[in-house]
Specification:
Number of strands of chain A: 0
Largest interface: A-B, 39 and 39 residues
Order of helices and strands of chain A: HHHHHHHHH
Shape of chain A: globular
Radius of gyration of chain A: 16 Å
Number of helices of chain A: 9
Largest sheet of chain A: none
Oligomer: homodimer
Chain lengths: ~160, ~160
Amino acid sequence: MTSQNLSVQVAINSWRLVMERTSKLFSGLTDDQLSKEVAPGKNRPIYLLGHLTAIHDAMFPILGLGDRLHPELDAIFVSSPDKTRTLPPVEELKKYWDAVNSKLLSQFATLSADEWLQRHYAMSEEDYAKDPTRNRLAVLLSRTNHMSYHLGQITLAIK
Amino acid sequence: MTSQNLSVQVAINSWRLVMERTSKLFSGLTDDQLSKEVAPGKNRPIYLLGHLTAIHDAMFPILGLGDRLHPELDAIFVSSPDKTRTLPPVEELKKYWDAVNSKLLSQFATLSADEWLQRHYAMSEEDYAKDPTRNRLAVLLSRTNHMSYHLGQITLAIK
């Protein structure tokens, strides 16, 4: 493995680890726990399940990995805060979560180390030229941190 | 910048971004908010401030960057759960947080990209040979995720 491949592998491992912990947590929560705010007045785990799925789904076009599976989630889980919209059934949301994350992981493996260091698609060529750290790898780390952030909150739903 | 340097730079940027967000959050919390559980029965932000400082301080020896600044924090913030020990004053804890993170960032800059991909010091040569992804970079990403996880919780202390 070249050094560059090794860096990318470490970053994908880190994503996978957080994703597996988050999946395990979601699977282990009862419907009651999923529907109870993580702290008074804050988001419910079921909302965070949809929110994380929507943000991960949006990684396909940002990373140049094709079309989204569930763009319809954005209106409910990104543009709207929790407790303002009717949510899809939890069983549907869990299926979307699995489908999006499983497809993402298999797509990650198709990118070469060089491609991970190229600009992401929410970035113009011009801006990338000014700051080459605004690449796909940066998106992966940013979304891993985002998932960790909400994982810390969802954990609070466990008694 | 070589590709390998670029990967490391992206990882350090990601650490710095989360660290700055966390620092800003701690600075903005009142003493009341720092002493109030983030959710009923859960940790207080003041405990998480000491906990994160202790875990970051432990990165010096793990990354081979020298001695710890505050090993005494472990007994209170790692081995003991919140609300079982008398904590240092918050002003002291904030000083430790700043000192540890500021020294870490300056030390990160002293490591070459190759050194980031070498084994970390909580790892034997033998185990590293089996799995070269268990390197310093993996420690950095893991601690960035850990900080993000608790950042998500501390945010709940804001009204």
